[in-house]
UniProtKB/TrEMBL annotation, chains A, B:
Residues 69-316 form the AB hydrolase-1 domain. It holds the Pfam family Abhydrolase_6. This is AB hydrolase-1 domain-containing protein. Transmembrane segments: none annotated. Coiled coil: none annotated. SUPFAM superfamilies: alpha/beta-Hydrolases.
Amino acid sequence: MSTNDPIALADFGSFFAGGRTVRIEGKETRAIRFTQTASFQYDPNGTYHVEQAYVQYFIPARQRHPLPIVMLHGGGMTGTMWEQTPDGRRGWVQDFLRLGHAVYVVDNVERGRAGWTPFEEIWAEAPIIRNAEESWTLFRIGSAQGWPGRQAFPGQRFPVSAFDTLMRHAVPRWLGNNDAALRGFQAVLDRVGPCVVLMHSHGGEVAFRAVQERPALVRGIIAIEPSGFSPEVAAGSMTDKPVLFVYGDFLDATPLWRNLVRAGEGYAARLVEDHARVTFWRMAEMGIPGNSHFPMMDANSTDIARRISAWVIAEDPA
Amino acid sequence: MSTNDPIALADFGSFFAGGRTVRIEGKETRAIRFTQTASFQYDPNGTYHVEQAYVQYFIPARQRHPLPIVMLHGGGMTGTMWEQTPDGRRGWVQDFLRLGHAVYVVDNVERGRAGWTPFEEIWAEAPIIRNAEESWTLFRIGSAQGWPGRQAFPGQRFPVSAFDTLMRHAVPRWLGNNDAALRGFQAVLDRVGPCVVLMHSHGGEVAFRAVQERPALVRGIIAIEPSGFSPEVAAGSMTDKPVLFVYGDFLDATPLWRNLVRAGEGYAARLVEDHARVTFWRMAEMGIPGNSHFPMMDANSTDIARRISAWVIAEDPA
């Protein structure tokens, strides 16, 4: 399919998965005004539904592989990260669809369209949000010294001139919500059924833990620079399961990433012990230098999607 | 096009529009742990991008009308409200696409994938979120007395047994953000260009004010039970512009809605004075009884979409 052909979809849509009903009680009411015309007595006490995940799906008319790809964002991001690049190119949602994969894009608990709860009775702590300066270094666009002048690492493939648009993706996150995120993602898997999970960064911990909870549903795993893993790997949970790790360039530029790649290698070794079929891509050592922490937004994003799709077809998770 | 034929899209994707860069300063740093593997010193001080809108668009391969439809949610909702019904049917996004309209779905400032800011320096007040009890009555599903047993109004077309799924759509909102929402929506219009705006409830105030700011871009307006309007109607801003007001049933069941319909009639009269071509549908008086505040989710949602599409084609905004 050429990149400008129409996309034929068998279907697309969205659904919510998981969450729970809660009661808020004992709070004071207050008068509010919600447009210039309509005012109201606001009573926060009552019934709410919280901790659901939101999922948007796109099913191509002709599928190249029977298993859909479930895309799980990283920390402080939503599913939007998979569907646009900062410089306005198509994202991996469109790339994978055009390559014939059904795609499910998750806004997990607390993020984006999944909604969030403003009650400290439910999530006690304060959320954090990542600023541009921290993103610049953590996402390996450039060094801290390079930030004021927007001097990126030499050979950087991230669209640096559109860095501000990446910051529009950033949303608050609660550090205590990992278990809720795990439950939300499990509910997504239960609804989607057998699938390949493609996750990024903080999505690693959520997804690898979910694999341990739902080993029969997750038939293959693509981990883009995961920053977390499951604490245990149950015997038999990974047998013959294809797992792909993907890392970009400039990994030695921050101590955090030096450690995280080492942790990824260690986790990959544990998966091999449990008979997973592990593929480990350090792209810079494969003749593909220059990728940031966001290969799905880098200049060669479509090429990387093609390589990952080819890996899925070749490994044929079933 | 039959409802189960594949949908051929010329394109789809998303973008952010509007917003501004802010600096946060003078806050304390704190140690955080963001996965079981990765810990970090969190410094909230720095640069953020806030108050952008998120827009997802779907362009059909064959368009029946040249102007796209821009869908703007109501208060406490995101663009999700247009793409699924609580009982799992397709939403108006798919209906209007299948009817040949290009569709732009907005998550306006602070909602869904547009993100939000947790800093009181930017949005000082506390957000509110609507509970199930208030939604039950305000959205005219049933009376307050009917809530405990989920007894809806007789003839109710809202999928009452799936009411809890509607509550999963609810997200927090800031009552002081109407001006930011207006700016965000204007940025959306500037990016989309000439269009027809379809809005719901609280989206009325945002959209009608935006029409006054961008009269040349908004060529037609579909107001689904608007709860707010523009304070002024500038001379010449509405000349020959088609405007459709749509109201469901049970309007006398709450004083708020009695007043809001009256306000809608008054505003419609002002638009007529400025030579708008106004159509006013009280559906219950047109042989279509039983609709709630969410006709896009009611059992006859696809039929209503067809009627609105036919109105667009007949009025032919240009």
